[in-house]
Write a structure and sequence with these properties.
The protein is an all-alpha fold and about 425 residues long. About 65% of the residues lie in helices and about 0% in strands. It is built from 19 helices and no strands.
Length: about 425
Amino acid sequence: MSRPPGNTRLKAARLAAGYNSQQALADAITETAPKLGIRGLAVGVRQIRRWESATPPWPQPDVHRVLTHLLGQSMEDLGFTPPWASPRPQPGTPVDNTPRTPLYGTRLATVPAQSAAATQPPSVGRDFAAVTRSHRHLYWSVAPAVLHPAVLEHARLGCTLLPETGSPARQTLAGALAESYLLAGRIEFFDLRQPDQASETLLRALQAAGEADDPLLGAAALAHMAFIPGWANDRETAVERMLAARTYARRERASAEFWAWLDAVEAECETRCGDPHAALRLIHRAEDTLAVGAEHATPEWLDWFSLVRLAAFKGNTQLKASHLPQARQTLHEVLDGLPPESNKQRTVVLGDLAAVEAADGRPKEACRYAIQALDQLAITWYATGMDRVREVRRTLAPWQNEQCVRNLDDRLYDWGTTVSALQR
């Protein structure tokens, strides 16, 4: 049986550009990346060999940029087919127009490239972005299990429209698509506690940000991806992703709020990895950054961070550092300062206050705050908030025969809470 011919388009383009070996192209990509403002990118012969195979994987945005710069052709002209895009039909082959829903557990889907003909009107980017903006607002009040499928279906629509959309609407559409995937990834990680699924979705957000050439959206996707190893106690990977996020942010005019949020994310990772003192230093730097301010505007999609939410990060870190009086004061100030729509964050703060009281040997007060958190979770589900309550219950083991703890157990394991938690 003869072998498939491989990606002859890329090989032909490589030879035409004067790179007579795969090693020569790999070296050129590595050397050219810094000249385009891309740091830390290195490509080896093995990767070139995969690209010249019969089923070449779609390169990441930075590699995409360097490769098209060196060879002077689009990715599709170089023989790459986005996994969500239908392969180019062979002559005489019927075209299957059946919509395909991307499934998790299969090959990672990517954002499609632009086709030769743009068939969508110039308004398509604005129209798609309007729905994305509505989903972002609905996140604060709609149940995550209800909103999540709608956001993913909207993203699927965006991937269908992207190859049919010409510039400048294409850039608007790609940016909104990145926002949709970012929102879906946030729901998966924070609300539904599905880190593996969130990792794939956030990678798609990064791919879409690359298509939009939006470094801040890319930085946001990378910083969210840092949460995943950070919460798994993999500090090395979390720090590496935060380094990438900061590199992307430097390519754009990031606001003071954006830089402070990056510090807060890294602080959360440091806290989770057992170094709350390093985390407090990062939080203090974020406070200084916000106090000084910056001339650049914060993107409207960065609606999950503010001074009061930075204080919530700080209160949790003070708790982990065993600075209990300071944590108690900080968290009470956060409760007073949270806006009415921040019910998800409220459950986390109540859980942290319960943990402060438990650590201070005050089980009655701990149970009171934990029950308040459960009352809020019954209205607005948030997996991160439920995790906080469960952590508190574990620390209350020395008082498990106390009536207040039994009352908490009755509330924690009532029919509705138990079934709801297991369903999610």
